[in-house]
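Field log, afternoon session.

UNIT: design team B
ACTIVITY: writing a sequence onto a fixed backbone
BACKBONE:
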């Protein structure tokens, strides 16, 4: 396993969520933010703008709309989204959030590794994994792998220098030899 990068995993999730929010909220001409009706009956133009990988972000915004709309005005403002994403970056992501936000990330399998080892990575058992916990687990796993690989390594094929008696009468050839001159 290479070094897992929690920051890239969490940053990608936050970036995708912020991008999807921006596209969906831009449908409102009043500039108030994201409304529930922006998440349903998406136009072909909006679907194309979101791209194939952003369906999970739309789904996440839809299923977490009530949690993100802190003042219950029916709109997720940019400030409310910013607070939610800042919380994700500082507090970490739950297993459910990783599944919902990261499953469609292309070019990386970090999210599946984090999900597979989630309980071991979550060092403080708070139900979330942070960048620091992911990095710590990754380094611990690498150290354990090296320890296991090196455990069976033993010195072998060591050369031993033998000399004959005729070389005893030669002059010293190194500083160490000068430290112990013949008496």
């Amino acid at each position: 396993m290479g070094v897992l990068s929690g920051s890239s995993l969490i940053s990608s999730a936050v970036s995708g969520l912020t991008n999807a929010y921006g596209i969906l909220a831009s449908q409102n001409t009043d500039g108030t933010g994201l409304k529930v009706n922006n998440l349903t009956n998406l136009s072909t133009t909006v679907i194309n703008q979101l791209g194939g990988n952003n369906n999970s972000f739309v789904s996440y915004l839809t299923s977490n709309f009530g949690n993100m709309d802190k003042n219950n005005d029916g709109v997720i403002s940019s400030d409310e989204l910013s607070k939610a994403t800042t919380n994700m970056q500082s507090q970490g992501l739950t297993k459910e959030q990783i599944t919902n936000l990261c499953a469609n990330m292309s070019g990386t399998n970090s999210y599946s590794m984090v999900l597979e080892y989630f309980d071991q990575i979550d060092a403080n058992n708070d139900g979330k994994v942070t960048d620091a916990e992911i990095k710590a687990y990754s380094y611990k796993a690498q150290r354990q792998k090296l320890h296991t690989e090196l455990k069976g390594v033993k010195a072998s094929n060591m050369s031993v220098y033998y000399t004959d008696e005729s070389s005893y009468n030669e002059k010293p050839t190194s500083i160490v030899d000068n430290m112990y001159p013949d008496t």
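LOG NOTE: Residues 4 and 138 are 6 Å apart (CA to CA).
NEXT ACTIVITY: expression trials, pending approval
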